[in-house]
Amino acid sequence: MEYKEPIAELLSSLEQIVFKSESDTLVRTQKPASLTEFEQVRKSTGLKIDDFARAMGVSVSMVKEWESKRVRPSSTELKLMRLIQANPRLSKQLMD
Predict the structure, then answer these.
(1) CB 42 within 8 A of CB 82
(2) Burial class of residue 31 (count of CB atoms within 10 Å of its CB; 0-12, 13-18, 19+)
(3) Rounded distance, CA 18 to CA 33, Å?
């Protein structure tokens, strides 16, 4: 039997719930050349870098590393980013 990390499994389930209802209406916008993928995700949420870092459970320097492409987020962090992007109100709950 395969062991699955509980947090990763939870995020995966949440992602399926969020994107199942929005999969037909979700339109990805073309990112400006000056913004990295992760910077675009953060800015689309309307969160400042420190608030985004707190919602993600990482340091501001880690978010800067992602945005500069020096470090790639884990698959769990990527799923959480997509959930926050799809529902920015979720970030406020994660920060509490």
Answers:
(1) no
(2) middle
(3) 28
- For CA atoms 25, 46, 6, 68, give the dihedral sign: positive
Question: For 30-56, what is each residue's pLDDT tens digit?
Answer: 444 567 888 888 888 888 899 889 988
In the chain, the percentage of residues whose pLDDT exceeds 90 is: 15
How big is the chain, counted in residues?
Answer: 96
The token pair that represents 29 in the structure block: 């916008």
pLDDT tens-digit readout, 57-94:
999 999 999 988 899 999 899 888 888 888 877 777 77
d(Cα 69, Cα 73) in Å, to the nearest integer? 10
